[in-house]
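Hi support team,

I submitted a single chain yesterday and got back a structure, but I'm not sure I'm reading the token output correctly. Could someone confirm the output below corresponds to the sequence I sent? I've pasted both exactly as they appear in my results page.

Thanks,
R.
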Amino acid sequence: MINIRKITMLEYYKFRHYRPFLVILGLYVFCFILSGFSIKSLLDWFLEKQKDDAFLKHFVETGLPLFDFVDIWQNLAWLATAFKWIPAFVVIISVTLEYSQKTIKQNIIDGLSKKEFLASKVALIMIISLGSALLLLLLGLFLGLLYSPIKGLPYILEHIEFVAAYGLEVFVFLCMALFFAFWIQKSGVTIILFLLYTACIEPITTAILHYDCKWEVWYFPVEAINLIIRVPFQKYALSFVHDTIEYRDVLVALGWAGVFIGLSYLILKRRDF
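Hi R., thanks for writing in. Yes, this is the structure output for that exact sequence:
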């Protein structure tokens, strides 16, 4: 039986003094917080520059309610998804280092099963995902209490499920990074191919299939991950937006997480070290 505490502590001892690991996570937290504080100022500056625009006149006078309760949770969660590649690099480095430094072989010789080794990486992903959700929660509460004109508890709690949705999106995305790392094993190559696939290859392919061939593309992995939290800003132009989390999107994303973890285990199981 897998000892969760044992494998979690093992992962902690491996990376607590590894400076690049700490620097990348620190960069993630810094970018996360900086974006929350800078976007409001940038939007106010933009609206001020466009104060003669008739369409934007209302927002110039009242301000764009980006960080108002009830809107803040979906808005902030969607904006934060831009930084999910940073912890993905942490996962890739944590796996590929095991191969380059031969620690994966030593762990297995010392009695750690391949299933337990994989579980240690999944535990790392879960910790990062929970930490990301907690960071979003704290930042959202701070910005909402600072900028929102309404601050009652019912308004604060409405749509707060987007915090959990963000944690889920990060989790599934990191599971995908985990699979790439086990599959390729070289950190530089893995990062390049992961970036190419998630930012270029699949988005371009799904766009062609959807707009030219009229295919449904919600079941592709990156598309499924991105659909967990939909773009919320059309509502400020009086257009319809999905301001709820669709069960289908959650189930498809969880399915892909299971696929990526399962494929990682198959790779790990079949390879000798």
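A quick pointer for reading it: The radius of gyration is 21 Å. Let us know if anything else looks off.

Best,
Support desk
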